[in-house]
Model the fold of this input.
Amino acid sequence: MFLRELSASLDHIKGVGTELRSAFTHLGVTSVGGLLCYYPRDWEDRSQIVPIRDFQRATVCTVVQVIAHDWFGFGAMKTLKVHVEDTSGQGVLVCFKRPFLENQLEVGKQYRLWGTFFYKYGEIQSSNFEIEAVRDDASKNFGCLMPVYRLSAKLKAGTLRRCMKQALGQYAKPLEDELPAYLIERRGLLPKSRAIRAIHFPASLEELELAKQTLVYEELFYLEIVVAKRAIERRLAPGGQSPDAPVSSLQRRLLERLPFSLTQGQLAALADINRDMDGPYPMARLIQGDVGSGKTLVSFLAALRAAEMGGQAALMAPTELLARQHAENAARLLEPLGLRPAFLTGNIKSSGRARLLKNLALGQIDFVIGTHALFSRDVHYRNLRLVVIDEQHRFGVLQRQAIVEKGDQPDLLMMSATPIPRTLALTVFGDMDVSIIRDMPPGRKPVITHLALQSNETRVYDFVRQQLAAGRQAYFVYPLIEADENKSLKDAESMATRLSEEIFPEYDMSLIHSKLSEEEKRITMENFRQGVIRVLVATSVVEVGVDVPNATCMVIEHAERFGLSALHQLRGRVGRGSEQSYCFLVYADGENNRLSNDGKERLKVMKNSADGFVIAEEDLRLRGPGQIAGIEQSGNIGLSIADLVRDINILEHARADVFAMLEADPELLQSEHQCVAQVLKRAPPFANVAL
Ligand code: ADP
Ligand code: MG
Done:
């Protein structure tokens, strides 16, 4: 019997009746197998004595004698206090809602106690404790590692543990291994039946560790089977040949109309895309290219290809501001070629929206650009052939999946300026192809970055004034929209007033932030793009995508408050034209606003590097692997025990084993071999991973 086949109802577990069964349903547990896979979120080590004296170091786990009872509060609030002591000292148990303990805990008798204590009202108190009489028989709740489960109001810790023990007793023994025996041996894993027992009630920390490794490995093994399947099928597929013409005729026409030619990186990415789109499998390609490297244009060329093939293309951007900018560019560049682009957001007025949706469903729109509204339930495509996801790290796997599902296996093109560390990219997105644009459009001068102390802000403002006088434009970015209570930070609203009244009264200026309506944002951006507004005071809403080549100054105040990738993106808003651009990172390092070491490091990295890949690696080093953009939390792809970042070593083992197994015998992909066939049949949740 395999664990996943244990679909028997919980009724079969001794002691579980209707009421308990419904309590379990609340937790999402509906079968015996589901219960056994309801892993603890933690384990309490009750195998070591921790005397009361050591309450600050760890959870107390000791044998106590009850010395007195007393009460405090009145009526319904009346609460029992039980005074206890062990050999190291005294403590007080505050028995909220547990008046019955008065009879259970007798003065003079001994009990095993486990609880978290705090120093309060001159006493060492605990209201969160478990206690049981010391008897002759061995304790079930002490001297061991106790599983801690996610609970609900209707399901108490003790009950859940009891049911789990019972279920393990009835069902764990005959569980068969799912992994091939040779891998269990090679990786030093536990047999499945022992791993399942030990994950709930480990005999030791060592056994717990082995059980975790076993179950994590098994889960990642399945994950990699999904990844490997497509990778291998693609490799085995005939072709992979270059298309006849590297550039199609519509693409050529667009290129001829541009005032510049593509960079080498753009050309190579385009060739990859054209080859993929002609190939036998749907494209799954990530374009990585630094901020400003011209990814949008490449995606437009892909959209042209889709249209030539008689299909529709959709481009999804993370903010409405950015989507609108893309839509305007698409209209300018693609309409003259006969393409019919459209802009779709969530809050387009219903009449216009209805017409747009109708045209989309009829195939009278070739290229639709928008936010996540693109995969709303009421949006239908006639023949969605290409999905482009801009700033892909801003989207979760499920959102990307949702838009892809609007078509029948459409080609997928993702764009990101945030590089994913190579190991993770390979392992998690094992079947995704990557094109890297390393070069920048010619004529760009690297942005000159200056760090400035807040006390020197006047010099920064003076410099910006010269730039404005020369006809350029500037961004000022702040960490807050409006003043916070203690006014410790500059905010965009107050600074907009100060900049326009005191500092640059001679120039037109606007404020933009996320609390404005989309219409207000649109008008502001439009005015800034047209040069009507010379200074834009903003929050990080301008972080992604905004493209105004005449802006040459980016002033980020309280730069110490921004993460590295945000700083890099913000700086990427300038240096987009042929004029020299400047970025000022103004930081506070005063009495009330000490600059942390991390903050200092970040600013230095920004000053010393302009390369997004270097910055991403520094980011990883400074922040640790837990927060890498682009790697979703494991929950999103349906992992229950494994964590892609924490378990990267096991992931690499599982990946190597799976690829070796399937490469040695590709027939396995077709066969009924249980560990492969089973997981492939069970398409979700791992189906998402292929993205
Ligand atoms: P990103 O890769 O950050 O999304 P964009 O697509 O916004 O970059 O492009 C930045 C700017 O560079 C745009 O104004 C675009 O028109 C321009 N651009 C793109 N490709 C080239 C090129 N080959 N030569 C000159 N300018 C280009
Ligand atoms: Mg972009």
In short: Residues 260, 262-263, 266, 289, 291-297, 417, 441, 547, 549, 576 surround adenosine-5'-diphosphate (ligand 1) (CB under 6 Å).
